[in-house]
Write a structure and sequence with these properties.
Layout lengths: L5 H16 L6 E2 H8 L13 H13 L3 E4 L6 E4 L1 H5 L3 H13 L4 H7 L9 H12 L6 E3 L11 E3 L6 H37 L4
Antiparallel strand pairs: 1-3, 2-3, 4-5
Helix pairs in contact: 1-3, 1-5, 6-7
């Protein structure tokens, strides 16, 4: 499966969320999806997308078998097929859904935020599913480098591709090594200049 766009991920996550939180309104119309995607609370980042953009995202998600169209009412409605299409259990889908909706979170935050989608016994249960999702042939989540002063590391989903902060963190050791080499070269050149100045009787 290809990487999802941020909007496709948001649409999929809203369908999963609303199935659990407002079952009487599920499957969702495009109008209800727009409200869920543009919601100001429990969303990171906050979006402002049109129904036309959501329809385009739905078409793409249908082609990936992540979303189905439900016919039979006056308004066309949509339901997700996330667990089957992604090959994850309900607990794993709950974790991915919250990461798509709210951005990177710690295991403890995920346990609290997934309460209405899946009830985890404890934080270690969440960590177990995170490790399973991260250990797949194509990893679905990644543990982010711990932020300065943070007690716990956060996790991010990879359904939209690599996370920038991880790539930056992986580049840091190579950057540090390059800086060290440059400093060594500068010190060597400084020593050479001082020696030549001494031989020529030039004061620096």
């Amino acid at each position: 499966m290809r990487d999802l766009t941020p909007l496709e991920a948001r649409v999929l996550a809203v369908l999963v969320e609303k199935e659990a939180t407002v079952p009487d309104s599920y499957p969702l119309s495009v109008n209800a999806l727009a409200s869920g995607c543009n919601q100001k609370t429990a969303r990171d980042p906050v979006m402002n997308v049109s129904e036309a953009e959501i329809l385009a995202a739905l078409d793409e998600l249908r082609s990936l078998h992540l979303v189905n169209t439900v016919i039979g009412s006056r308004v066309v409605r949509y339901e997700h097929n996330g667990a089957r299409a992604l090959g994850v259990p309900g607990a794993g889908l709950a974790i991915l859904t919250q990461l798509m909706l709210r951005g990177p979170q710690t295991a403890a935050e995920l346990r609290a935020n997934t309460e209405r989608l899946h009830r985890f016994a404890d934080v270690s249960s969440v960590e177990g599913f995170l490790d399973e999702l991260a250990g797949r042939e194509r990893a679905m989540v990644v543990r982010l480098p711990k932020a300065p002063g943070a007690r716990e590391a956060r996790w991010a989903h990879l359904l939209c591709g690599p996370v920038a902060s991880v790539a930056e963190a992986q580049a840091l050791p190579a950057r540090d090594e390059e800086v060290a080499l440059l400093r060594a070269e500068v010190a060597e050149l400084r020593s050479l200049v001082m020696r030549l100045a001494g031989e020529l009787g030039v004061s620096l």
